[in-house]
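PROTEIN DESIGN WORKSHEET
SECTION A - STRUCTURE
LENGTH: 315
TOKENS:
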């Protein structure tokens, strides 16, 4: 049974899409320079952060992690398979296996590693696509010692249940935050705990930054969602639960979840790193506080809680 260390900063996982590609709804600083990115990565590791979340699809992120730690003595890395957008649905099993292996080899080269600590599918569909050829190749690479831990990054509760039903899956990343009650309503926490051997990591804790930015100007225009009113409600709840800010309330809520082992938070500046490390010093919400808080939260549409559905911002 994997333990959940409630106050431990090693539960904080650095999300690196922000240091590999221009990303983030409220991102005012853009893509950091290589020098600034490497300084942030090394500082995060010196501050006690033991795991970095990255992906083939995050621009220069893997290379910058490789450059920062030269493949040794660095944090454990969780990377993700290429999205294989070039692989046709009717591609042969051999073509699918070759595409999967090419992605793994690219990650090994970028991270300057002989093997990968954790590899996640970036698309849950690859668990079974192409007759299961992609997953089968990854299982063979795991048997050969090239990959230690295998898992999947999911978007929906259904994808989480599919992943939890597979014994070969030992790590699941999912989007989870105060506004996104889909997982609790679907019963994912209990199912995850029933598979005590699976590591659960949560991302989107600040909903791509719009919750922590506390400025409705950064919110997507979603029908039926009053951004200003929602921020006012969250601010009122933060005061009610004696939290320092909406970001503190959001983080304390996810840290209080006894089924989530790691919190993947995206950052592109050292100021954000300092702020998040400071928030980890405070107590997470207790189970009593969570039980008091959840009924006060209105239901938000998937169009808001799933950033992939956000309307593209007009320039
Ligand atoms: N499908 C997938 O597997 C997938 C999808 C998305 C993300 N991810 C992973 O999850 C990580 C997190 O990305 P996310 O989209 O989920 O974002 P998030 O962690 O919910 O929010 C990150 C954003 O919050 C802002 N921020 C962070 N700390 C802050 C603080 N203390 N105070 C104020 N603002 C703060 C920054 O926004 P600004 O830049 O606007 O300042 C940052 O870019 C990524 O780096 C990536 O590793 C995975």
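SECTION B - SEQUENCE
RESIDUE ASSIGNMENT:
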């Amino acid at each position: 049974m994997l333990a959940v260390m409630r106050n431990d900063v090693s539960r904080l996982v650095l999300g690196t899409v922000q240091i590999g590609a221009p990303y983030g709804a409220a991102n005012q600083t853009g893509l950091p320079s290589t020098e600034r990115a490497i300084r942030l990565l090394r500082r995060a590791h010196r501050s006690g952060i033991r795991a970095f979340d990255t992906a083939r699809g995050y621009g220069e992120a893997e290379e910058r992690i490789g450059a920062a730690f030269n493949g040794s003595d660095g944090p454990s890395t969780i990377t993700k398979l290429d999205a294989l957008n070039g692989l046709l649905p009717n591609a042969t099993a051999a073509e699918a296996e070759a595409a999967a292996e090419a992605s793994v080899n690219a990650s090994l080269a970028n991270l300057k590693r002989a093997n990968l600590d954790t590899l996640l599918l970036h698309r849950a569909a690859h668990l079974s696509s192409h007759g299961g050829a992609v997953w089968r190749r990854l299982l063979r690479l795991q048997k050969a010692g090239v990959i230690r831990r295998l898992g999947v990054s999911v978007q929906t509760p259904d994808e989480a249940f599919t992943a939890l039903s597979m014994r070969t899956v030992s790590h699941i990343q999912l989007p989870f935050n105060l506004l996104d009650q889909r997982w609790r309503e679907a019963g994912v926490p209990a199912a995850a705990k029933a598979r005590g051997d699976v590591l659960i990591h949560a991302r989107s804790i600040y909903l791509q930054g719009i919750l922590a930015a506390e400025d409705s100007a950064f919110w997507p225009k979603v029908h039926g969602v009053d951004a200003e009113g929602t921020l006012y409600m969250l601010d009122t709840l933060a005061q009610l639960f004696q939290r320092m800010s909406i970001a503190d309330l959001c983080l304390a809520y996810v840290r209080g979840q006894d089924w989530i082992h790691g919190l993947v938070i995206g950052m592109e500046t050292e100021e954000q790193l300092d702020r998040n490390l400071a928030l980890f010093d405070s107590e997470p919400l207790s189970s009593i506080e969570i039980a008091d808080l959840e009924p006060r939260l209105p239901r938000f549409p998937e169009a808001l809680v799933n950033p992939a559905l956000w309307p593209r911002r007009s320039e």
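SECTION C - NOTES
The beta strands are 12-15, 51-53, 76-80, 116-121, 147-153, 171-175, 199-203, 262-266.
The mean pLDDT is 94.
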